[in-house]
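Example S7 (structure tokens).
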């Protein structure tokens, strides 16, 4: 009987862990990047402004001392997190780069911008949780050239935010 109880407890714990991993909070907690001033909780940003201009603060690393430069997505779909599952933007009829990193005018950092929304899509994108993966990014240093990190989509090279 004790073995059955332990097996059921393990299965229950696994289901809870998987559900949390697929939640907006779970994705946020797994990302190594966040937005300046928002490393402790998921920020919410207004997406109603002009296209191709960052609507978020700078994307920063959660690793102490690591300074991020420009980030890229290289055609990797962002996802909408629909607790307890998720879908790519493309699956929901959005451009795969609807939300994308965009360099700030200083050329040394990035925020998130959006492309022009197709009719009806802006309202559909509001009130959502979005996760964006990065396939390459710069690590800046005071004493040398930026180091460019190129990678296949690694699940923890990402940011998460809510839209309004």
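Recovered sequence:
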């Amino acid at each position: 009987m004790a073995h059955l109880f332990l097996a059921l407890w393990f299965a229950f714990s696994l289901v809870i862990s998987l559900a949390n991993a697929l939640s907006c909070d779970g994705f946020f907690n797994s990302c190594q990047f966040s937005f300046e001033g928002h490393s402790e909780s998921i920020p919410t940003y207004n997406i109603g402004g002009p296209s191709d201009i960052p609507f978020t603060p700078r994307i920063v690393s959660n690793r102490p001392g690591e300074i991020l430069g420009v980030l890229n997505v290289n055609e990797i779909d962002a996802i909408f997190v629909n607790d307890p599952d998720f879908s790519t933007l493309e699956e929901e009829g959005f451009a795969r780069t609807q939300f994308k990193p965009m360099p700030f005018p200083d050329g040394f950092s990035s925020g998130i911008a959006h492309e022009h929304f197709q009719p009806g899509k802006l309202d559909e994108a509001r009130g959502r949780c979005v996760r964006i993966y990065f396939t390459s990014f710069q690590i800046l240093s005071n004493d040398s050239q930026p180091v460019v990190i190129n990678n296949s989509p690694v699940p923890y090279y990402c940011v998460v935010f809510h839209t309004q």
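Notes on this example. The CA atoms of residues 131 and 160 lie 4 Å apart.
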